[in-house]
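Hello again, I could really use a second opinion on something today. I owe you a coffee for this, so here goes:
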Amino acid sequence: MRPLLAACVLSIGLALVATAARANDAVVLDGIASAGNLQAGSIIATADPLHLSAGERLTILLQSGDVVTVVGPHDGPVPRPGEASGDLGGALQTVADVVVGVSGTSRVVGASREVAIADPAGDTPHGVWLIDLAEGGTHCALDGARFLRHEVGRAALVTIESAAGTVGPLSWGADAATLSLPASMVADGPMTVTLDGVPHNLVLKRVPDGVDDAAPGALLAFFATAGCRGQVRQMLAILAAD
């Protein structure tokens, strides 16, 4: 993990929680291996032999924050990149716990890693930084964040309320899938977004500068420790499809 991201995770206060994961452990993000009954959320020791039959595939997050894909037939240790990119610390166990909770529930498929991560302000329906009003929950937000709606074709009026104040009504264009969140409203805490009289409740966690530059595995760990479960689902879909 990059030094800045490590500091951000520590600032959340969750990476210091005691964990059962050891330094040489890894967590399965996607896939199934019949030997060892491995599936999403399983913690494995990377030094132990990993057995995959033909046709089996596992996407694995290493303690370093690197993500590797193993395709069967395979009989040996988990392959490692030539140089480790960092250390997730206690976040690995948190990732495993969150993956168990969200695996199998994602409705995001075929997302592009380049668009979803490198273009957070883009109008891509499944960008990991877009705030999906239909999902609610806790969302990690950057400056320049945008709301996402799935039904377009008509203009709408939007009012936003949070501890930072109230803005609106704002006009949401008929053909626009996203709407920019005013910079003054990107702050930690509960938020109510009223879209044509219908309230949508969510919680924002403002992301420190630089986190969006993290490698995909480290970004997944950040979302997991921050409790941004919808973005965990997004990242799992991106990594599994890669």
